[in-house]
């Protein structure tokens, strides 16, 4: 009889411990999501809202968008945007952050947008482009990220199409390849003036960062005329970044896009 009671007690104890462990596991999975956003699979842009719980990725004013030229409100760009880049803009380092190739800049260069100064912080790349113009997807898009003293962000978006070789991109790519998670100190000067062949012809709208946390209230300035770089230069960047590191098109939600000329 004692043997039967002991066996019954053991079964009850094991059942209790198993249920407790299952409950603990379920609770942990509900409160913690250790996945990190990416551009593919279960952590791709379509799932960023689930993965990045405290982000704005489900906001109403997100980027990128498809810019329809005929729907843009044409306005004079006189004095709205001024670019104060030195011919010797100083790069501090390059890094492969797992999402893009990013060049960080030392303090100094800036833009004046709507009478507010924003300082150049970094340049990174998306392949293919995130923004579309009249539904056209370009081979590459460059984002020049600027931040003012209060933390507000303005991004210059430059589209690239394939053609002749670009000396500027030859310089950028002289520091590649670089492994995922690695960085290289540079501390060299670069002339970025070739990026702004027609700085007075651009689209502007209020949007967000195109990567988590998808912060809204970002000033977007997307230049209408693409720059030219070679197929080989596009491929070299592509081979150093995740495949298709772009976010899908976001709804406009009645936002006004301006064509500044």
Tell me what you see in this structure.
Reversible hydration of carbon dioxide. Residues 35-261 form the Alpha-carbonic anhydrase domain. InterPro entries: Alpha_CA_prokaryot-like (IPR041891), CA_dom (IPR001148), CA_dom_sf (IPR036398), Carbonic_anhydrase_a-class (IPR023561), Carbonic_anhydrase_a-class_CS (IPR018338). Pfam families: Carb_anhydrase. Belongs to the alpha-carbonic anhydrase family. The chain has helices at 2-31, 48-51, 167-173, 231-238, and strands at 66-67, 73-75, 81-84, 89-96, 101-105, 110-113, 116-126, 132-133, 140-147, 153-162, 183-190, 202-208, 216-223, 227-229, 258-260. It is built from four helices and 15 strands. Helix content is 19%, strand content 33%. Mean pLDDT is 88; it is low at 5-32. The chain has a single domain (54-260), classed as Roll (Carbonic Anhydrase II). The strands form two sheets. Strands 2, 3, 4, 5, 6, 7, 9, 10, 11, 12, 13, 14 and 15 form a 13-stranded mixed sheet that branches. Strands 1-8 form a two-stranded parallel sheet. The protein is an alpha+beta fold. The longest helix has 30 residues, at 2-31.
Overview features:
alpha+beta, Carbonic Anhydrase II, two-stranded parallel sheet, 4 helices, 19% helix, globular, zinc, lyase
SSE blueprint and pairings:
Elements lengths: L1 H30 L16 H4 L14 E2 L5 E3 L5 E4 L4 E8 L4 E5 L4 E4 L2 E11 L5 E2 L6 E8 L5 E10 L4 H7 L9 E8 L11 E7 L7 E8 L3 E3 L1 H8 L19 E3 L1
Parallel strand pairs: 1-8, 2-15, 10-13, 10-14
Antiparallel strand pairs: 3-6, 4-5, 4-11, 5-7, 6-7, 7-9, 9-10, 12-13, 12-15
Organism: Algibacter aquimarinus
Keywords: Lyase, Metal-binding, Signal, Zinc
EC number: 4.2.1.1
């Amino acid at each position: 009889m004692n043997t039967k009671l002991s066996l019954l007690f053991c079964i009850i104890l094991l059942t209790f411990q198993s249920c407790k462990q299952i409950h603990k596991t379920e609770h942990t999975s509900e409160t913690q999501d250790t996945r990190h956003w990416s551009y593919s699979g279960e952590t791709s842009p379509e799932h960023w809202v689930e993965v990045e719980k405290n982000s704005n990725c489900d906001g109403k004013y997100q980027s990128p968008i498809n810019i329809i030229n005929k729907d843009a409100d044409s306005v004079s760009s006189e004095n709205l945007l001024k670019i104060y880049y030195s011919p010797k803009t100083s790069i501090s380092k390059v890094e492969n952050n797992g999402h893009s190739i990013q060049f960080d800049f030392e303090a100094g260069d800036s833009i004046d947008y709507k009478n507010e100064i924003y300082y150049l912080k970094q340049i990174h790349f998306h392949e293919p482009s995130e923004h579309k113009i009249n539904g056209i997807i370009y081979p590459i898009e460059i984002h020049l990220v600027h931040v003012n003293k209060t933390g507000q962000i303005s991004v210059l978006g430059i589209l690239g199409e394939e053609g002749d070789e670009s000396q500027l991109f030859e310089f950028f790519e002289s520091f590649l390849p670089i492994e995922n998670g690695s960085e290289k100190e540079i501390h060299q000067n670069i002339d970025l003036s070739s990026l702004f062949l027609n700085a007075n012809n651009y689209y502007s709208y209020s949007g967000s960062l195109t990567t988590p946390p998808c912060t809204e209230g970002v000033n977007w300035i997307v230049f209408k005329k693409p720059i030219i770089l070679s197929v080989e230069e596009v491929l070299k960047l592509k081979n150093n970044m995740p495949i298709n590191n772009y976010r899908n098109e976001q709804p406009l939600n009645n936002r006004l896009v301006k064509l500044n000329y």
